[in-house]
From TrEMBL:
InterPro entries: 4Fe4S_Fe-S-bd, 4Fe4S_Fe_S_CS, PSI_iron-sulfur_center, YfhL-like. Residues 1-29, 31-64 form the 4Fe-4S ferredoxin-type domain. Keywords: 4Fe-4S, Electron transport, Iron, Iron-sulfur, Metal-binding, Repeat, Transport. GO terms for molecular function: 4 iron, 4 sulfur cluster binding; metal ion binding. This is 4Fe-4S binding protein. It comes from Azoarcus indigens. It comes from the Bacteria. The keyword Iron-sulfur applies. GO terms for cellular component: cytoplasm. Gene3D superfamilies: 3.30.70.20.
């Protein structure tokens, strides 16, 4: 699954620079995650970095974008061109 940012977001700006895929950007009111770029940090890190730094724990899995670890790895390879 890709991740999502809920409306509990306080716009603290710490998640955006942590995303290795550039999937996080400022939305109209809160930060948002582009599901096409989010790999839950698969290929980069063992755990999603945005979740690790979020002070309000507002970055859950997105139930609208269910993906397996294999699919996330395929997305990582497509985004980076790096074979794992």
């Amino acid at each position: 699954m890709s991740l999502m940012i809920t409306d509990e977001c306080i716009n603290c700006d710490v998640c955006e620079p942590e995303c290795p895929n550039g999937a996080i950007s400022q939305g109209d009111e809160i930060y948002q995650i582009d599901a096409n770029k989010c790999t839950e940090c698969v290929g980069h890190f063992d755990e999603p970095q945005c979740q690790q730094v979020c002070p309000v724990d507002c970055i859950p899995l997105n139930p609208d974008h269910v993906e397996s670890k294999e699919q996330l790895m395929e997305k990582y390879i497509k985004l980076t061109g790096v074979q794992a």
